[in-house]
Amino acid sequence: MLRAMEQGPQFSSDNPAQRALLLVGGGHAHVAVLADWIGRGPPANVHTVLLTPDRHLRYSGMVPGWLAGQHARDEGLVDLAALGRRAGVEWVQGRCIALDPQARMVTTDSGRAIGFDCASLDTGGVGRAAAILGEDPRLIDIRPIADFVSRIAAMPAPRRVVVAGGGAGGVELAFGLRNLVRADARPEVSLVTGPDGLLPGFSQAVRTRAATALVRQGIALHLADARLAGGAIMADDHSLEPADLIVAALGSAAPQWVKDSGLETDAQGFVLVDAHQQSTSHPHILAAGDVAARADRALARSGVHAVFAGPVLAANLRSVLAGKAPRRTYKPRWNNLYLLNTGDGSAIASYGPLSAEGRWVLALKHRIDKRWIARYAALAETA
């Protein structure tokens, strides 16, 4: 059974008691941990619990394609509970609202207390829409992505949309909403990027391709800050009204329970971890994905890093649970391949200074995305 202890065991190899591992969140890194448990067997003498608010992980990279009618709504789901059963992991539905690393206890939104000896955090960040833009009933944050999809699916097809955020997520959603498959007429879409402009951090070639695609599809581009003022959505001092839907793709903030936990964090409140994904203040806690920040290097908050950090996290969890120092380190590649769906049957490829565009790029994106989903579906099949 999971247990809370004042000091907790020291994970020594001669401790015969069963250890309790708590995986908080069902992000990309923890999916890789479950796959490792399935492939290599779970760590000996360890009882693992996975705590997630939803049974499924929704792969955000396929959401713009769903909007444009390229995928079914539930095509991009990973069944966390089924993977957990196959991995010998107990799935508990709930959301972490408090973490006490000293008492080794997590409190869920239902009031349940779950103790642990070792914990791993992969919950992602939280949305910043209200904090940055203000309150408005038309405003939908893309985080959490499952809630975003549910709200978009439940509402009537919008006629006029404003997307705030010029990163890859905001750009792809602007294209997806412009090509919304269930709309009788293509929605009018405005993309408000902020002063950093379109696709900051990408090469000029990619930015030029994206800007050209926006013009080709009639999406208005505003290189200004979005804000709500007097009930109206604005790009600086320019009104974007009327608008039926305001989508915020403004990056993630750290969950409040992380800030309140006593874990060492960076200036923004994300869990500070070392090169082994281990908390710099509490070595019995590891973290990966958007909830974490590396102390040794800056990493963009991108799902690709969580995917590649997952196997490293799995290996280091095995080490910590066995009373050994973690050895594996996630070393990002010099660059990563990004494939941006333009919603009209094409996509833009980005790899460092290189770029390409065409239907073949979209076919490549679909193949990569579906292969990732299929891998975990196959692992869960015999659950």
Automatic annotation (TrEMBL):
Keyword rRNA-binding included in the entry's annotation: no
Known cofactor(s): FAD
Domain FAD/NAD(P)-binding: 22-296
Lineage, uppermost ranks: Bacteria, Pseudomonadati, Pseudomonadota, Alphaproteobacteria, Sphingomonadales
Origin species: Erythrobacter fulvus
Name the record gives this protein: FAD-dependent oxidoreductase
InterPro entries tied to this protein: FAD/NAD-bd_sf (IPR036188), FAD/NAD-binding_dom (IPR023753), NADH-Q_oxidoreductase (IPR051169)
Keywords recorded for this protein, A-Z: FAD, Flavoprotein, Oxidoreductase
Range of residues in the leader sequence: none
Keyword check for Metal-binding: no
